[in-house]
Amino acid sequence: MFERFTKGARAAVTGAVTHAERLGADRVTEEHLLLALLDQEGSRASFAAGALGLTDRRASVEAALADARRRGGLTRADTEALAGIGIDVGEIVARVEGAHGEGAMAGDRKSRRWWSGHRPFTAGAKSVVENSLRVALGRGDRFIGEEHLLLALTARPSVVADVLAEHGATYATVERAMYGTGTGGEGHAQAG
Prior knowledge:
Layout: H1 7-23, H2 30-39, H3 44-51, H4 58-70, H5 76-84, H6 89-100, H7 123-138, H8 146-155, H9 159-166, H10 171-179
Protein name: Peptidase
InterPro entries: Clp_N_dom_sf, Clp_R_N
Keywords: Repeat
């Protein structure tokens, strides 16, 4: 499938690996894909990110992602569901961090050493890459560009999709910013 990726999409994927390495993460996540996309300039995805104010509010996006990591990667829906049965995620995070230090639930295990130099992709990151093909094919495109990766990040429920939505970047708004029109909803590219 990687042979269908444009130069920009390949740069986003390799940029995600670079972000994972720089942050000391043992795996490449959806967050790393988003950060790599926000690094890019001169593409449809970077235009959409700029038009939606993501690049101007990058610090806010990164802070929201860090906050989600502190909650152990729970989505907003997960947190609300737990609150519905009386479980306060904020209280749990505070207790765990009180006992084990800030970021204890983040899952960042920086002590691991990588001898092979290879960082695997999480299931979520793999799903985004796979869904970018579905997005491209659904739009009638033969190649996968970074715009398809950005749309795929917004198309499936995840912490990254939550953070993007909180910053005004849903599937529909990203699509509108890139192409000027919407295709009538977010559901058509959510398979996977």
